[in-house]
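**Entry details**
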Amino acid sequence: MTEARVFVNYRRKDAPGSAGRLHDDLADRFGGTTVFRDVQMRPGIDFVDEITRAAGACHVLLAVIGPRWSSITGDDGRRRIMDPGDYVRLEIETAIARPDVVVVPVLVEDAVMPMPGELPPSLRELTRLNACRLNDSSWDYDVHRLGDALEPVLGTMTMPVVDPPPQPEPEPRRERSLSASHGAAAALGLLAAGPIALILSQGLHDRPAAAGAGSIGDLDDARRRIVFYALERGVTWAVVGAAVLAAWVVLARAERPLLASALAGASAGFIGGFVGGVLFQGSKYLHNPSLSTTLEVPSGVTARAAGYAVAAGLIGWTLAGATRRLTRLEGAAAGMGAGVLAALFTAATSGMWRWLGLGLEALIVGAGLMVAILLAERAREPARIALPLPGRPEARV
């Protein structure tokens, strides 16, 4: 068992099915004694000792990374990957420390490569290594490519290699990435958020008076204006959030329930819109001539931009959690940037039909987040597998 030359490293609570499938496919190609996974150990074997020997004796370590690989926590609430005693971490550290071992990150189940800051210093080198992505829709082809890349390291094995039938090389990154054929439907859905938001928020618009909280002489009415405006913006941004998350499901053909995604976006949009509305009208209220205050607070475009940034940032945060193609902070930052752009657009087109302006705001926010996802995917797309022979310095690059 410990003479196995390929070690499949994985986390049992992350992607055990994909790891097992990969092990079986490589064992079919290279032979059962060549590929090691922990379930092969006999009862009574010292688990730690056997794993350590196998990880230390292999020629190739395949680090199978699923969507929860770096985020799974232990009983103490601490992320497992940050625990020095975590077996997955120890196995990879053991392999990285050896110059004669090739380490290959294998991304499965739509996972993305963790950011260096998400890993302990001893594992950050993993993010710089050539990676392999295995997609469900092109699994056999992807595993065949991986096996071809392992051949120079492992040498010719006794098991025959069966070439797949000739076919055009797929482009795995685009299979579940943004689809141009669905772009028009997603854009129309975002634009439709305008009239829908207008209808749903009509009973809240311009109440209790068609003026801002800074222009209402009665302070009680001015305070009610803040509440009504915040509710109006909450409803409006709830529709925008639902449209953005639904557009993502349609555009990327994501395997997520459309309704659940829309509800998540609506919740984030309502909270963000309500807070943003309070910020905008609250700043006006503090400038009310009937209120004795010496506070210097932003108003006008600045306050609107801050309110839009809060709402769109929360939608971006939620979208990032749903797609896992952006970190939460990246999603929030992209959403805030798009929100500011939408606020500037609104300020510059104050005479536009309200339903059209709301729709274009949704389109700006949605497009900004989709562009952020595209850029993140392009930056993190694993390079084509090019494994050097063991012992060469570039094996660690």
